[in-house]
Amino acid sequence: MTTPPTTRISPINKGLGHFDRDLPASEIAALGWNLLREDLVLPTAVLYRDKLLSNHQWMRRFTEAYDVRLAPHGKTSMSPQLFQLQLEGGAWGITLATAQQVLAAYTHGIRRVLMANQLVGRPNMAVLSRLLHDPAFEFYCLVDSPEGADYLGSFFSEQGQSLNVLIELGVPNGRAGVRSEEQLADVLAALAHQPSLRLCGIEIYEGVLDNEPAIRQFLKHAVAVTRRLLAENRFAQKPILTGAGSAWFDLVAEEFTAAGFGDTVEILLRPGCYLTHDAGSYERAHQRMCQANPVARSIHPGLETALHLWAYVQSIPEPTRAIIGLGRRDAAFDSGLPIPALWYRPGSAQSSQAAPTAAPAHWEVTKLMDQHAYLRIDPTDDLKIGDMLAFDICHPCLTFDKWRTIPILDADYNITDIAQTFF
């Protein structure tokens, strides 16, 4: 996991140390910054290298056990450096959600993309058309209606290009996707009249459902559609069958591999949050998974939080309240507020040797404002202004997008590298 030497880091990005000019990212490690010595300007988001690699290895072992491929959702981090880590570990490609994301990934060397979304709008289609002039670029997107098929087919026919598409299946009251057999028949008929479109597989997103029986039923439906279209020779290549967000990928692996397609179908899982994990919904999903799924249960260690937000205690205006220099501009809050994880007091006599300790269990963030967090404490707590706190986050996707540069730390809190994001 190395940063390209041509990547440059600006001192105006938040969460970094002191430097007065743009620097090549490859020179950051040579600066000798250390989080605990207060070499970074807080608040800052940090990644822990050892935990990133451990989570990466966990998912690799999981997919290998099921003999499926991984196409991790890049919208989580939008960090080409993390994309490369995933690809070097055997990922089939990177999943993305928008034309802009695809362009950012392509610009940083990604050459196989599944856009798990509908491609709509002439400017968006023009972006992809331009990228498809590169014969090394392999791209897939979704379609769920005759209108969508005609829309794409007309544009790419004008360009003299072909486009790989997957039919998206959906559920009532869900997101996009074909809801009925009649709709599926209409989409297939439209694809048959659009020679520029190549039907390459079936896609679902089971995360729109919230219970296991409904998810399994949806997955079985996707298997049945794939089996039928395979028998009817509808696919232009070895078909892709893909699903799996970050919460239910164990069920997807179980149901799709139980179908027994063997080498006739390429099964792709698309979780994106596993690399950094979290302390909220994905941790609860992981606990469920390790209880129910023997493969997940057998892989040690389990997924660990690899992303922290560090901030200072700014004020203690009341005996039961501390104000932390961390807010909505820094952390996701849609799936739960940040959770105090570590506590460190810089500048103490033992600061060069002391390590952060676990935050007391009764500390709780009760409210976030733009730049402040309200932390509930006990009057007897030995908390001081200037203390450093690390917070677990709930939902990596909406935390990554608040940071342009994220230091990567080793086990001693030394900054060894920088991950950049491109949202």
Low-confidence stretches: none
Q: First CA to last CA: what distance? A: 20 Å
Whole-number tally of structural domains: 2
- Form type: globular
CATH architecture of the largest domain: Alpha-Beta Barrel
CATH superfamily of the largest domain: Alanine racemase
Q: Give me the Rg, rounded.
A: 23 Å
Q: What structural category characterises the helix and strand content?
A: alpha/beta
* Beta-strand content bin: 15-25%
Residues in helix, %: 25-40%
Quick one: CATH class of the largest domain?
Alpha Beta
Number of helices: 11
CATH topology of the largest domain: TIM Barrel
Secondary structure tally: strands: 20
What is the average of the pLDDT values? 95
List the helices and strands and how they pair.
Elements: E1 8-9, E2 23-24, E3 44-48, H1 49-66, E4 69-70, H2 80-88, E5 94-96, H3 99-107, E6 112-118, H4 122-131, E7 138-143, H5 146-158, E8 163-168, H6 181-192, E9 197-203, H7 212-231, E10 240-243, H8 249-258, E11 266-269, H9 281-292, H10 294-298, E12 307-318, E13 321-324, E14 339-344, E15 357-358, E16 364-368, E17 373-376, E18 388-392, H11 397-400, E19 405-409, E20 415-420
Helix pairs in contact: 3-4, 5-6, 7-8
